Amino acid sequence: MFRIWSAGQDARLYGRRDARRYKGIRTSWVIWLLLVSVAGALAAEDTLTLDDELLRSAEQWAKENLDDDALRVLQEVDRDKVRQFLAQIQKELHGEYVIDLATLRDSAKTALPLLENYEETLPYALWLKPRLDYLDVADELRLIIPAPKEAPGQPRKPIPNPAPEKAREIWVTKFANRPWPKRAQVYVPRLKPIFLAQQVPAELVWVAEVESSFDPRARSPDGAAGLFQLMPATAKRYGLRTWPFDQRLRPEESAQAAAHYLRYLYGRFKDWRLALAAYNAGEGTIEDLLARKKSKSFEAIAAHLPAETQMYVPKFEAILLRREGLKLAQLKLPKAEATGAASAQAK
Question: Over the chain, what is the mean pLDDT?
Fold first, then answer.
């Protein structure tokens, strides 16, 4: 059952300073998302051009809707750099080639401190941090996957995507010695019963490490939020409100909706790799690729998934192996008596 929120509970959960951040975050992230969307829509190849009239309209909206503190932050941050980076990383995450993510490492190092310095933009920093792993792994892959031979007079071909097995191997190595995220010590024991109550393996709680490194304040430029980075439509589909208070920011409610969605996806695809890919890329994307390849296998479509999804699934597998000592194929649907006990505990 969803718990009743109180300001005191969130202050105890996140710390009083962090709890106070929510008021500014809920308003200022909207204008950032608007500006990023404008930039993304106007991006062309490797350069970014902004339409002055559209940008002025967005800033006028900000003047009419944001408080003075938020406006002062937006004027001080190097908005052009941050806006350009967020637009570019979204483009590459949704793009076709994993190796292209490697080109964003330097930009990420510039953008992250800017985002971290202000309460209003901190949620984007918390979203970006776990995704720095994608940039690092893409750079490793760039060094070991040979570039295609160039033919005279022909355009340069992109570096091909890694085979799923090679991607898994690199991710397992990367996480071999990584400790638990700090907040996982609090959330994992509390949220595992919620996953069991939804009749999915409790170990899927580690999706939150991939999505947010267990920080419920994280928000993406696409509009996803919370520990499990639920999009607004998905949250509403599973009973969460996004207004007047965004329930995606509440760990228990977010976990319940994420677990319910994963249960649905597993029922639809009958395979955990495909279910996780659909959680990240959308079930329509996975269905279309399976139909196009006339296959029911993750391996058959992996190299054609969005770049982020190609990294997302093996990253979760590496985390699952590191945290639980399990492979994805070893996950078992919980028995009815276990889910009944877990449901009582969750209440």
Answer: 82
**Greatest mean pLDDT among 40-44, 111-115, 281-285, 336-340:** 281-285
CA distances from 24 to 37, 57, 113, 220 (A): 20, 21, 19, 16
Q: How deeply is 287 buried, as exposed, middle or buried, from its count of CB atoms within 10 A (0-12, 13-18, 19+)?
A: middle
Let me know: does 19 contact 5? Beta carbons within 8 Å: no
Give kind and range of the element (H or E) at residue 44.
strand 43-44
What span, in angstroms and rounded, lies between the C-alpha atoms of 169 and 284? 28
In which band, very low, low, confident or very high, does the pLDDT at 284 lie, cut at 50, 70 and 90?
very high
Residues near 274 by Cβ (< 8 Å), separated by ≥ 6? 265, 286, 290, 296, 298
Q: How far apart are CA 311 and CA 209, in angstroms?
A: 14
State the Cα–Cα distance between residues 82 and 29, nearest whole angstrom.
13
Model pTM? 0.78
The closest of 235, 180, 236 to 208, measured between CA atoms, is 180
Q: How far is CA 218 from CA 27, 122, 130, 242, in A?
A: 15, 8, 10, 15
Residues written for the chain:
347
**Distance (Å, rounded) from C-alpha 297 to C-alpha 104?**
31
Find all residues with CB under 8 Å of 329, minimum gap 6, and list them.
272
